[in-house]
Amino acid sequence: MAHAHNKASGARSAAINEGLANVLFDVWLVSRATTALIDTAVQASGLDADEFAIYSVLASTDGITPTELARWMAAPTTTVSSYVKRFERRGHVRRTSNPADGRSHVVTLTAAGRQAHAAAGELFSPVLDEATQLLGTDVDETHVRLQALHDIVATMSTRDSDSSQG
Amino acid sequence: MAHAHNKASGARSAAINEGLANVLFDVWLVSRATTALIDTAVQASGLDADEFAIYSVLASTDGITPTELARWMAAPTTTVSSYVKRFERRGHVRRTSNPADGRSHVVTLTAAGRQAHAAAGELFSPVLDEATQLLGTDVDETHVRLQALHDIVATMSTRDSDSSQG
DNA sequence: TGTATATAGTGCGATATCGCACTAGTGATG
DNA sequence: CATCACTAGTGCGATATCGCACTATATACA
User: Fold this and answer.
1) Candidate from A6, A17, A33 with C-beta closest to B153
2) Are B79 and A3 within 8 A, CB to CB?
3) A21-159: which CATH architecture?
4) Which of A8, A35, A33, A26 is nearest to A142 (CA)?
5) Cβ burial, residue B35 (10 Å; 0-12/13-18/19+)
6) Is residue A33 within 8 Å of B154, Cβ to Cβ?
7) Count of alpha carbons within 13 Å of B138, Cβ hemisphere only?
8) What is the pLDDT along chain A (166 residues), one digit of tens a residue?
9) How many CB atoms lie within 10 A of CB B111?
10) How far apart are the C-alpha atoms of A130 and A148, rounded to whole Å?
11) Residue among A10, A17, A143 minimizing CB distance to B26
12) Most CB contacts within 10 A, which of A23, B89, B111, B133?
């Protein structure tokens, strides 16, 4: 991602919203704004928003295969493959062989990787705090709605790609 | 985006969620899953999820400048610039001069562009319907939460980029 | 009205994303 | 234990994204 550009329309022009008022479009808009915000926030750490998210996943798993990661973040395996290669080049990630499957391997954050993640986390924290504070009592509700929506979308995706062949 | 890959983990592995339970991370996950889903859904129309979203914005505005569009979708102007160029190459978009500002111009969907958007819309519709149906009575609440979150994030972004120089 | 500063948009180059085709290893079936 | 369909992962090439530097126009202000 790494755009971290300037300005966003705080006051949404109502006229444009006509015909655009649906949850999936909402997700798109929110996500773009959020990514931009976090890109800017964590920029100094050398990570962008997507990378920070991925490092977070890695940090909370100790050990995940590229395919699992790809499913998790709904990305093509080739994309994950190049992410891992990049992170490895930075010395932030290590591959260890997967005892359970010889074709596969397990990806883990190195100490440097955890440190980079922590640094980005320091920058991310106040942003999350402010957003949380602005949401006020709605935080939990928002979280629940997002989780529910994710489950729905994930289920739909899974069904679509499973058994394409009848 | 245009990934439209395979499979997503329908059942979220609870263990991984530790430390990842925050609204902004939620947004990232939902958005990735949604984009993947819509990429696949509208693929046959020749548009990807992002393009469909942008065409939707264009369709509901008749006439927007690149900068306005960039603010709307929280993208760098260079990115919007290449989007517009691409759409123009496809014959889906037309530029007309902006009477209000000589540096600028107004971007509009052509008839072919509206048609492409409609075609993608046909493919998108059932997906939105199903998601809506699965959300049930929560749709409105979800929509409201997403809008609220968007306003918050947009406000934060705007403040950050306004008056960087004191 | 002349000069300074800010904004709209683009060309270009570096890097990222991801589809296709491929290799290597797995697991089921006879 | 041979065969065969299937899955994990990667190299490569086409295209997309976006920062930097630049041009053209607009606005502020003396």
Assistant:
1) A33
2) yes
3) Orthogonal Bundle (1.10)
4) A26
5) buried
6) yes
7) 16
8) 555 444 333 334 445 565 689 999 999 999 999 999 999 999 999 999 999 999 999 999 989 999 999 999 999 999 999 999 999 999 999 999 999 999 999 999 999 999 999 999 999 999 999 999 999 999 999 999 999 999 999 999 988 776 443 2
9) 10
10) 24
11) A143
12) A23
Question: Hey, what long-range contacts does B15-20 have (CB within 8 A, 24 or more apart)?
Answer: B15/A61, B16/A57, B16/A60, B16/A61, B16/A64, B16/A72, B17/A60, B18/A60, B19/A56, B19/A59, B19/A60, B20/A56, B20/A57, B20/A60
Distance CA A136, CA A8 (A): 22
- How is chain A split into domains, by residue range? 21-159
Q: Tell me which amino acid residue B124 is.
A: F
Q: What is the CA radius of gyration of chain B?
A: 18
CATH (one of 3.30.70.270, 3.30.1380.10, 1.10.3720.10, 1.10.10.10) for B44-151: 1.10.10.10
CA of A33 to C1' of C10 (A): 24
Which of A38, A50, A39, A26 is closest to A153 using CA atoms? A26
B9 shares contact with chain A (CB less than 8 Å): yes
List protein-proximal bases of chain C (any atom < 7 A from a CB): 6-12, 16-21, 24-27
